[in-house]
Design a protein that fits this description.
single chain; about 180 residues; alpha/beta; Rossmann fold; four-stranded parallel beta sheet; 6 helices
Amino acid sequence: MRSSHSSMRACSRAVRIEVFGSTARRATAAPTGPGAGGAGASVVIAAMTASRAASDSARSRQAGGGGSIINTSSITAHRSNGSHLTGHGVGKGAVSSFAPHLAIEGGPHGIRVNTISPGLTRTPQTEAFITDKDIARTPLGRVGTPEDIAAVALFLASDDARFVTAADIVVDGGQSVVMPSNS
């Protein structure tokens, strides 16, 4: 099995790279309601602005053969885990909802638009929050890694995904199927 770095090198040699990916903000647990601020709004604005700019750019280069826009959403866009991530979830929900609309606009120009919705992913920012319960509640018996998400992005960017557009691909080891609401 090749490492993710060697896979990326092979992909970059074999595939003409015409890809744009966006991700916005890290999740912060905070209450919602009056005066709670607009955490979701900043996620929406950042992703929509970047995706729209990428789509407009790709359409202006129509002779270049289109491209792929890959946005990062979250499983919190689809399901709450009760941990005060409402702004994050609502913002990422808008990101997930935006992709099919942009895919319809970009399709005639050869532009594919997809979204990746990761579950809990082990990073330096999340390490302190991952518990044995999180691992036990994941059917695959572990939380995700950045490499898990990158592998899906590589697929979506490749010619192997040439007929995939308007999709929201959940990459969570099955977490969202068994995600508890408040435990």
